[in-house]
């Protein structure tokens, strides 16, 4: 947004820039100030006003006919202040979306804040974690009795960038390593915690599935930044739920687990174990992208030999799951982010019965209309698979040493796991915990 100085008389330019300035909080809006113009002729004043009107009309026309991508940081929220959301430009042309819910039980400035990071990578915390898991409202926009908002403020962030409502103006700007993901998150947190009121709130970082890796890594980076005085906030702890911390330990657990619960015959379990050992050797050799591709092949083998076991509940067949018959499932090589996203978003309970639900339409409809700041050319979840592909080289890397360093710095880490999860199986979690 550039002010058209050529429309304004020279002797009014200085004052004009004071009269109409672009709001720092919302760069695509014009903020007004008072009592600036004095001692000028009516003709000059009329010329000035005409210039301003031309500018405003041009701006409105621009916003109406083009795909608007606001530069810088944008913030909005509900009139009562119970919710805030916005974009932080964590890098040039890289926009991270966040949504902060203030707990109605907030007792004071030291009330905790939970930062929720979804998995995938490429799944949206703003969508899935919020409306499907722990947020105040479900996808029917009804209050959720078990919301974590009863105990803390909730801060959902669509990370890595290009996930959910976050976006990049050029696909080459999508993060390609976990380290880049962490740098973006730390940039966001530094901006978010410039609010002095929030600086006194203890921050808990929660990561689910693949989100556990960036949760542990940003926790470590934040711990160091706090010690260096680069950011003012209290890190209260890191929570890792069914987290993809040690991929090799997880794939090595699949064969024995599925054999023990009678999902695989002995010969098939041996084949699964053989592929898992191949993945371990590829990781040890630094062949991380090849390990990711072999991991995808391994899931395919398990699919075909286990009567399509449900990767998120090994007690079920995925053929008995609404997900299995979804026509939009991509091929196995790019299946995991979509499999994870669709698994969580396809499960809705109504009258005790599971029904299919399209979270994408919900987010791009009623939620988008509420937020009002999403650029017109950005669709929720459109770039999610690109996120997974970009991080393919880091997908199979371990973060056990990161958790270890967190603990050595005296930070609190909580690890919890679902008993029937196959991808991040409890056996695999126990294996990597023993390495700490």
UniProtKB/TrEMBL annotation:
Keywords: Carboxypeptidase, Glycoprotein, Hydrolase, Membrane, Protease, Signal, Transmembrane, Transmembrane helix. GO terms for molecular function: serine-type carboxypeptidase activity. PROSITE patterns: CARBOXYPEPT_SER_SER (PS00131). Signal peptide: none annotated. InterPro entries: AB_hydrolase_fold, Peptidase_S10, Ser_caboxypep_ser_AS. The keyword Signal applies. Its EC number is 3.4.16.-. The chain crosses the membrane at residues 45-65. GO terms for biological process: proteolysis. Belongs to the peptidase S10 family. PANTHER family: RETINOID-INDUCIBLE SERINE CARBOXYPEPTIDASE, SERINE PROTEASE FAMILY S10 SERINE CARBOXYPEPTIDASE. This is Carboxypeptidase. It comes from Taxus chinensis (Chinese yew). The lineage of its organism: Eukaryota, Viridiplantae, Streptophyta, Embryophyta, Tracheophyta.
